[in-house]
Amino acid sequence: MNIEHIAIWTSDIERLKLFYTEYFGCTSGSKYINSTKSFESYFLMFDSGCRLEIMQMPSIPLNLNNSFSQYLGLIHFAVSVGSKEKVDELTARLRSDGYEIVGEPRVTGDGYYESCILDPDGNRIEITI
Fold this sequence. Notes:
Elements: E1 5-9, H1 13-24, E2 27-28, E3 32-34, E4 39-45, E5 51-56, E6 76-80, H2 84-96, E7 101-107, E8 113-118, E9 124-128
Parallel strand pairs: 1-5, 6-9
Antiparallel strand pairs: 2-4, 3-4, 4-5, 7-8, 8-9
């Protein structure tokens, strides 16, 4: 078994699409629009085949969780970039472009090399080897 896709609500679907295609090399499918529900979505595909569905609908309320704190529920997802150098390079690029780094590149207690950043909506993404 594997994870087929993860979905994220957003208030700015085009901004989030640009972020994931620009920094994580995702390719985007066509935008799906359901005008009856005012619902829009894109499926973004990673090289591995896993997909991220980004969705927008005006009736969805803002998330009240604090992005800097831990809380119950889905807290992050990890994207493997292939090497320690690529973790460092992507983290530095995101920092330079003004994105929040919430975990500097490091070896974790369980042996992973990773950093942790926030996407434009405050979702945590671990960048790993």
